[in-house]
Amino acid sequence: MIALLRRDLALAVRAGGGFGLGLAFFLIVVVLVPFGVGPDRSTLTLIAPGILWVAALLAALLSLDRIFALDFEDGSLALLATAPLPLEGIALIKALAHWITTGLPLTLVAPALGFFLNMAPDAYGYLLVSLALGTPALSMIGSFGAALTVGLRRGGLLLSLLVLPLYVPTLIFGAEAVRRGVDGTGATAPLMLMGAITLGCFALLPFASAAVLRINLR
Amino acid sequence: MSIWEYANPKRFMDWTAPVMRVAFAVAAACLVVGLIWGFFFTPDETRQGSTVKIIYLHVPSALMAINAWFMMLVTSLVWLVRRHHVSALAARAAGPIGLAMTVIALITGAIWGSPMWGTYWAWDPRLTSFLILFLFYLGYIALWAAIEDADTAADLTSVLCLVGSVFAILSRYAVNFWNQGLHQGASLSLDKEENVADVFYIPLLICIAGFVALFVALVLLRTRTEIRARRTAALIARSQRA
Question: Would the pTM count as exceeding 0.80?
Fold first, then answer.
């Protein structure tokens, strides 16, 4: 499992892995927002947490199809499926690798971008915590979507159509946690609910991903 | 004789032909009676005036939009467990109908919302969860359309339906958390003495019965079409091999 994780991380970080692309995309979306809504600082303060969450979600979406597609094309996924490691474990590791290469950097960069959007000073901590709790769920749900569309030649657009509705609860609790944190109405409840979603995803979705991969490898 | 024998495509075609006709007839009768009764022979409601009459389309379609997904969930499970092809085809058939019901509920709701709430759309939990349901239907139908191999498509869409159901319910309650609603709570439930005043309630029930019958008839129609399409494809494949 650790070897597979190392391999996936190495593949993602090296040339052509698209490691920086998600981050660059995140930056560009955030930079584009003030052009869209105008440079008014109080408006930006109001929408900053939501924008950062939506942008992080889209940036995570961007690299989803890489989770399984490349391995599926060159046949290494079929080899992995015959390995002693169960396919559920492979699905879990692949999602984890995706989180380490996209979710984690996004979480770390988000406060810096919040600065551009004139985010309220109290919000930084909540944003960091909510993204750290929520992005693993994004990776896990996304890897299920990627497994679902791995056999399709032009699955990219379909993948986003399938995955984005599944992201709704995570997004709601994530952005709500930041908003309530700033309001002072208590961010504990949304954060706990989001933690529940993340843990539930990690407990159950590997089985769904593995089932779907088996169908696609048939 | 077990219930599963009815899932044999040949037997399915045999027994659904009369059932479908009856369902269409019941749907037509109920909808004509219910809608005419509802639109022309019920009094105006004290506060809502005549706008209340859109309830006869709004409530039944919203009810069926949810139940269509539930039917897809059940048939998907049956396909995954027992691998009856008719079950997978029925799930496929229900998708676009559920989508249509969702759209009807959203549009009639918007038309009703305009005079009552002063807005066509609000990010109310119920409205939003219906919009999310709409997206789930779109994804489900798109996935069916995207995969060429029929069995793979049935398998993958079934798993999507199962996972999607969990997330749809999760979203349903998550949006409650996110915003307070304009929409009233559940007005119809089985365990209440009186749900809506009887003058409105009886034509509403007739309309709901009509929508249920219409849904059954349309699902059967589309499933039969799918079975025929499957047969044609098999015949073409056979003639090409020969």
Answer: yes
